[in-house]
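YM 10:42: HET-domain-containing protein sequence, as discussed on the call
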Amino acid sequence: SHVWNVEGEQSYSSTREIQRSVHQQMSEKIRRACAVARAHGYRYIWVDSCCIDKTSSAELSEAINSMFAWYRNASVCYAFLADVRSNQNPRAHRSDFRQTRWFTRGWTLQELVAPEAIVFLSQDWQVIGTKSSLASLISLITTIPTSVLLCTVPLRDFSVARRMSWASNRRTTRVEDEAYSLLGIFDINMSTLYGEGRRAFTRLQEKILKRIPDQTLLAWG
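YM 10:58: structure's back
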């Protein structure tokens, strides 16, 4: 899990090109992520930016609808926090960890909630802590209950409005992703149509109302 760089990330197509040419290099972020996973005994790592072919609308839609399950079933999720220094106590009052952009982005909500195990990594790839060890602090930062963070209580036990509130202060680059990033939070399967704008959120609400008899949804527009 990571916040994408504004200047762009290594893509699926560029990763495919690297497989064909030994003269090219993967980005430092990908190389360091692979090194961390390898050091922990893993043979494979999945990174959204370079493992999804975003030029294929069908593959992108399938990935978006499957992503929550992928994170939930992962052995571990590494959350790389590029704006957090390693020489700090994350619990300190004005620590980088408390203020990281990772807690403000739309897509990272499910990346926080879905995995059973998360290891947070600093900008120089040092371990800051785990979701389990930092659960109370993360709950304070995000307002998400520790029972949700630790996967001890199912999401369906929380009202629609409560779950929506966890995303209320998060932002996405594409307006459609405000809806698409919540599909897993509500266990909804929905086609993705980039270009539909805010209609995506209306469609999400309609899907939720059909699946979950909870009128608290109407508080969110």
